[in-house]
Every structure is written in C-alpha cells, then in structure tokens.
Amino acid sequence: MVKFGIRLLGTLGNVEMLQKLGSSAEKNGFDACWFAHDPFQPNSWVSSVAVASVTNKISIGFNIKPYTIDPSEIATFATQLDDFSRGRAVVALGSHTETMFNDWIGLHQNLLDLTRESVELVRGLLDGKIMEYNGKVFHWSNEAYMRFKPLRRKIPIYVPGIGKEMFELSGEIGDGSLPMATPPESFDYPMKYIKEGMKRAGRENDDFDYVGLIWIYHSPEGNVDKMSLKRIIAYFIPYLEEEMVSMVGVTRDEVRAIAEFLGKRDYEGAAKAVPDKMLDLAVYGTTEDCIKRIEVLLKKGATSISIGGPFGENPVESIERIGKEVISYFKSR
After folding, report:
1. Which one, of 84, 88, 34, lies nearest residue 64 by Cα?
2. CATH number, domain 3-224+284-331
3. pLDDT at 76 over 70
4. Can you tell me whether residue 62 is helix, strand or coil?
5. What is the pTM for the complete model shown?
6. pLDDT for 151-187, tens place per residue?
7. Residue 269 pLDDT more than 90?
8. DSSP code per residue over 214-251
9. The Cα angle at residue 43 between residues 40 and 45, in degrees rounded to 5
10. Torsion sign across C-alpha atoms 230, 50, 75, 193
11. Which residue ranges make up each domain of the chain?
12. Which is nearest to 31 in space by CA: 6, 66, 67?
C-alpha cells in the first residue's frame, strides 16, 4: 500500500502551529512527518521533537544537510529522537542543491563525496562500530564510536538530491530516495537513474522506497490561490532539474528572470514572475484533480508520496480534507 508523508516547513508557522499540523496529519492518515534542515531556516531538530511529543504513530523525519552538521551529531540526534519517539525516527541525508553551502556559506565540498561518506559514517555509528575512517572528506580516529546503545540499530536513511549523479547515489546507498516530482509526469527521469544506482550496487528493490515529492493545493471547489503556489515555485525553481520542469514548458529564460528577483530578495516580484503554466509543476485543484496527478506518480513507480504545502486556503483544514478525501481513496483500494 502506498504511504503518504507530509513536509512541514517553518514558513507555515511557529512550533505550536507545526505541532497542530503534525497532530492533524497523524489523525488523518499520514504515515510520516518530515522537516527540512536548511541554513537560516527554523531548526528541524526542535520541530521534530516538538511534533514527536504530540503524536504517537506517525514517523518523524528530518532532512539534514551534512555540510553544516557532522555525522557524529546526526547519528546521536537520530538515536535520541528515535528513543524519544519510541522507534519512529527516519533520516534523510543529502541535499537538493549545492548553492546553499557553496554560495551562501562558503563551504565548498563535493556533494557526492560528502553524502556518501556521511551515510556510511552514520550507519556505522548506529550499528555500534568503531568508525576509524580516512575518506575524502572525513578523517576520524579510533575514538569515533557511540558511547551509548540506541533503541534501534537500523534507522532508515533516505538520500535526497537533484541531478543524475545524486539520483544514482540514492539508489546505490539509500534506504529510499527523495526526488522532487515536479511535475509528477516527469518522475520517469529520476526513477531511471535511481534504478541505475541500485543496479550498480547489486541491490534488489523489494524494500526500497521511491518517494515522489510534490507540492499540493487542495480545494473542494477547485478555487486555487495561485499566488500561494507561485511563491513556493519561485523560491525553488532555480534549483529544480531542467529536464523535469521543461515538461510543462519552463524555459531557462523564465527561470533566470525569477532568479533575478530572488537575488534582489524581492520574493513577491519573483512570485509574480511565475507564469501560470508553472503551476503544473504542482498538484492542485479538487479532490479528483489531486487524485489524478498522484495516480500518475504511482504508475511511474512511486511507492510513497511526500506532500508539501501550501496544502490549501487553511493548512489545518486542508490537511484534514486531504487525509479524508485523497489519502483515504488510495488506502481503501
């Protein structure tokens, strides 16, 4: 059965609001609740613990970028979150873009090497190994081991990313992959390279989780606040895969025009520069509209769907409707 996750960004509100949204997601059929850990954004560690404290069943995930946090800290937080949530922690380790750490904060690392070594080190620590290590990025002594026993030795580690090489790496080393499905019709593209990575590693895909990340705006009457979607699209479009977004007719010049506004910190100007055709990068409309686009993802091989905002006019009410009308449709089949 397909699983559904929800991505709660700090822009949705304060910690109390995220708790309310996470609790509603659990009550309405979501299987996982994810938090992004990005520079200069609300801290995912605080948000994930806060939501874990008001839920009982939903998995709690944090999507960490290893360039600002050492694998030793990632491993210890993951184990403590897992203990606090009674075995509900999941980890995403990687990045959808190098811009944040190369251009924003000047940490020039090879993303592939950084991700590969971070996943290896975190897994080894969780498994109780002494992680004496001499890699391209990390150099650890024989003092690198956990001083306590985690609740679980095997916490799932997903690998996000954009681009052929990151897709392949996720298939090679991840328990699952987290590519953007923008638009859903483009999901064949990352799937091809994820499977190539799996084949290269000699892996079977029986328990591999192919997660399609979408943005959604659900409206019972089909009345969509286009600007709320355009704000999200404008912020992320410069980082998305050209081969995928071109499926809805997006051109380099259009992306460049939006990026110019972002460079001036004119986020409203960037949103206004998003043409209506870019709305098709997201899933929006009535229940039937949303179901139809999600069906596309499932037919292309997605095993899980990860839903990001704006969700709808009222996020709390929209999460409830998405659960009762969209998720229930798929889980009742």
Report:
1. 34
2. 3.20.20.30
3. yes
4. strand
5. 0.94
6. 999 999 999 988 899 999 999 999 999 999 999 999 9
7. yes
8. EEEEE-TT----HHHHHHHHHHHGGGS-HHHHGGGT--
9. 155
10. negative
11. 3-224+284-331
12. 6
Token pair belonging to 130: 């002494």
Residue 158 tokens read as 């997903």
Summarize pLDDT for 27-54 with one digit per residue, the tens: 999 999 999 887 788 888 999 999 999 9
Q: For residues 135-142, give the mean pLDDT.
A: 96
The CA distances from residue 132 to 120, 138, 290, in Å, are 12, 10, 49
Q: Is residue 234 within 8 Å of residue 270, measured between CB atoms?
A: yes
The token pair that represents 170 in the structure block: 């996720």
Length in residues, the chain:
333
d(CA 52, CA 200): 37
- pLDDT of amino acid 316: 94
Question: Are the C-beta atoms of residues 185 and 296 closer than 8 Å to each other?
Answer: yes
Strand 157-160 versus strand 59-64 pairing type? unpaired
- What is the bridge-based pairing of β-strands 89-93 and 157-160? parallel
